[in-house]
Amino acid sequence: MKGFLMISMKKLVTVVIGTAIATSLLAAPAIANEVKNTGPCERRGEVAVAKGIEYKCSLFGKNLKWKKVGAASTGATSTAGNSAAYANVSGKISIDGSSTVAPLTGVAAEAFQKVSKTQITVGISGTGGGFSRFCKGETDISNASRPIKSTEAAECVKNGVKYTEMIVANDALTVVINKSNTWAVCLTTAELKKIWNAGSTVTRWNQVRSTFPAAKMVLYGAGTDSGTFDYFTEAINGKAQVSRKDYNPTEDDNVTVNGVRRSAGATGYYGLSYYLENSDVNKAVQIDSGKGCVSPSAANVINGTYTPLGRPLFVYVKHASAKSNPAIIPFMTYYKENLAALAKKAQFVALSADQQKKLDSELDAIKKLA
Amino acid sequence: MSTLSLASKLSPIRKLKDGSFRVFLTFSIVATLSFIFFVVYTLWNDSYFLLNSDLLTKFPSNDPDDVGFQSAIFGSIWVVGVAALISLPIGILTALYLEEFAGKRNRLTSAIETNIQNLAGVPAVVFGMIGLAFVARGPLSWGFTVGSAAVVLAMMILPVVIIVAREAIRAVPPSYRDGALALGATNWQAVYRLILPSSIPGIATGSILAVSRAMGESAPLLLLGALSFVTFNPTGLDSQFTIMPLAIFKYASDSRDEFHYIASAGSLILIVILFTLNLIAILLRDYANRKSRV
Amino acid sequence: MEVGMYDLSQTVRTGSATAEGVSLAPSAHLRRRNLVQKIAINIMRAGTVVTVVITAGIIFSLIPPTIQLLGEIGTQIFGTSWAPLFIPPEFGLLPLITGTFVIVLIAMLVAIPFGLAAALFLSDYASYQTRRFVKPILEILAGIPTVVLGLFGLYFVNPKLVEKYWPIGESVGYSALGAGLMTGILTLPIVASVADDALSSVPRAMREAGYALGATRREVATKVVFNAGISGVVAAVILAFARAFGETTVALMVAGSYPKLSGNPGDPMQTMASFIGFAGIGDQPTDSTGYRTIFLVGALLFLITLVFNLIGNRIILRYREVYE
């Protein structure tokens, strides 16, 4: 019967699309292209060495090109160190909290999992959301872009959750504008407050400063669960969580990056690492808090000139986990030992010498708990 | 019967309306088909250079060069697999009961049937919310684990399983049942030894469709913490996890362009998985149809 | 298959034949059979109860926090600003409701014409072979995961269509229009398949009567079949409406996070479902106001989709009965 032999449309479509994708997925990887000075390459992630320099096939936008990694002798990564010491560490670590800190902890988690047998998850519920789970005992470590609030600390006490607060990096809360915005090069803190304060009716740039053009302003910023939100509102509006409500909020700073990038009159704020990662699509605003315009940068955070938006970034470690979970202390030790390299990779501002010393002593104190 | 002579009697306006209506209908169908191909083409265009086995073997990473979907794929398999293990037996038993054993004009039975129909239409997020309230937290407090996720998905696909199972059971010719009963079997024997085996292909088809729906769902597990950065495959019901749709969502939201292409690649992988499941379901349905025709 | 001696069915008390004669007590294996059946039925009943438990679970998880919250905020829900997680919070539901309606309306504008066109094509224009060809296409469309549609809306529809061509206002990145279009494509297969079921089951006799009276194919399709199957069509629309209402992922990815009270589809908007999604990405401490707000919106969403589904399913039941 003809019907018997006829292939149904669905089968045909499935088979065609499926084989196309499946064969390319299961295809044997192409042999490494001859490295030609950052020319195009075939297979993402492939590593090759040419003339003593290591290259990695990297994704740049839509193109695969060879990217210089470094001199071949440095080996796998600069975080190798004493990785052999962790090879037998196993266990599960649950981390949640700030999406500002998450890239740093995420880079640490990723690297640590490669040298050990642990399983680490990093969530991005926001600083507030992270603390809420942390104080319920659901997570072992909480990322935070502001210190724990008294109400949250009380909740932790109520549930018997003891913890240690550790500063792992510094941050410069960066105010950003669209690339085509040529007028808002430098804003005073008073002007920022005018834009972001509760009840603000500023919808055009010329309401901020009369010399600005009358371009429409679109606002992106952190959501209410975000430590960035708490910190920014406290620093700029004077009281934490006091803010105008008619903007595009998000706990995921990537959304702000995308939003600001798309609209000429847009402005937003997020952590420095997101800015460094996306400086090709967003522009940073210099902040004038009374002593002249200061750009957000690692240097200006460390020398203290970038105020009031310079802030420390925290990691909170639960004591009960440190005691009972065999993976926590090795992970934190690894985190601390490789902090400089990890911060560099994730584009965070490293700790000052004093901060580093404090971190060492806090970590030693935790080690004594186990 | 020739309509030719009649057709020439049609007024030009009618002919025009006829023609344009037909064009509109054909256009709709063609547009729908083209849309599907357009979506696949756009995805392909954005990710063909990424398609190799690395996507299946690597894990999530902050570095777009080291990113793969292994943990998401295994997470999906674990969660959906356990959900199927929970909901299939319950669903089939319920369907059997409603079709074969429950009173037909019963008030209670129609209430249960209405209830099932309504559950099938409840938005997926709501199941996520009950999961959050009762399973991940609340009385069970299993946390954000594979177990909680499986229970939530099981609740979501149970009504669908029941409905398709009932249709499959209904499709078994009544003569089978009558013959069995005439030979002296109990109701249960007739069901267990005759009707159930005959309806298995139909039930299997429906179950696979229900399972593929569960695999494509993202909203309920969003509330159960599956949006996290997870770089390992689940090892048990108490593992944390992530799933394919949410991994795609995560990369789609990333600000870096490179991750968008990875999200597109992931979408293609997910589509292939779902289409394969559907293909198996169709083959099963054809097999069942052929069998019952004999 | 075991067959007891002289028994016809298990309702007749039968005996076992022994050398002494026939006794009226049920034989051992009959007793065992009946017991097995009883156990099996009870297990199946237990399975059926699960569905009731799930519904009870939904109701018991949604109602208490909702009532508690309503007691606290009362008439604030009629306000025009939705900012429940800010300090001080504002609970005006209007932006969420309008956001949901705008997106659902646009979705229906896409799904209804094209879905009904597909249904009419399948029921009255397509040959058997074409039907075998086209029906799976609709199933494929229905099988596209919502994330993928969201992705498409985010990367293609919003930047390349809405931002460039939507004349009213300034569209950036997120828009209700994009979300509505994608949700429409999502619900199109529902309209098409339910309407096709209804239109196909219109008796041939009606069609033939139309043709006999000299109607063209189009006239029969639109004036005879469509009207005869109108209840099924209405049911299709209602069910699609309910589905579009509950869609979370597409709205989350394409419509944005800002609950703007606006009638302009080019603006970002938040729907009830996407609000729950956003709140779920963050985390609310149990029993806080924020937590209860999620359940309030969830209860509202559940109620609305329940009503629509009830009506839609009832209509389908009725038209099925009419023809069978």
Defining key terms:
heterotrimer, A: 370 residues, alpha/beta, five-stranded mixed beta sheet, 14 helices, 36% helix, disordered N terminus, B: 294 residues, mainly alpha, MetI-like fold, 12 helices, globular
- Total E-strand runs of chain C: 4
The oligomerization state is: heterotrimer
Shape of chain A: globular
Distance between the termini of chain C: 35 Å
- Please report the total strand number of chain A as a whole number: 16
The largest β sheet of chain C comes out as: 2 strands, antiparallel
Helix proportion of residues of chain C, in percent? over 70%
Here the CATH topology of chain C equals: MetI-like fold
Shape of chain C: flat
- Strand order, biggest sheet of chain A? 5-4-6-16-7
Gist of the model:
The complex is a heterotrimer of chains A (370), B (294) and C (324). Chain A is of the alpha/beta class and 370 residues long. Chain A has 14 helices and 16 strands.
Descriptive account of the structure:
The complex is a heterotrimer of chains A (370), B (294) and C (324). Chain A is built from 14 helices and 16 strands. In chain A, β10, α7 (227-237) and β11 (248-250) form a beta-alpha-beta unit. In chain A, 36% of the residues lie in helices and 24% in strands. With 370 residues, chain A is of the alpha/beta class. Chain A is globular, with a radius of gyration of 24 Å. Chain B has two domains: 2-49; 54-293, MetI-like (MetI-like fold), CATH 1.10.3720. Chain B is 74% helix and 1% strand. In chain B, α8 packs antiparallel against α9 and α11 packs antiparallel against α12. In chain C, the strands form two sheets. A two-stranded antiparallel ribbon of chain C has the order 1-2. In chain C, strands 3-4 form a two-stranded antiparallel sheet. Chain C has helices spanning 28-73, 94-125, 128-143, 146-165, 176-200, 204-212, 217-228, 230-245, 249-254, 272-281, 289-323; strands spanning 17-18, 21-22, 82-83, 90-91. Chain C contains eleven helices and four strands; from the N terminus they run ββαββαααααααααα. Chain C is mostly helical and 324 residues long. The chains are: A alpha/beta (370), B mainly alpha (294), C mainly alpha (324). At the A-B interface, α2, β2, β4, α3 and β5 of A face α2, α3, β1 and α12 of B.
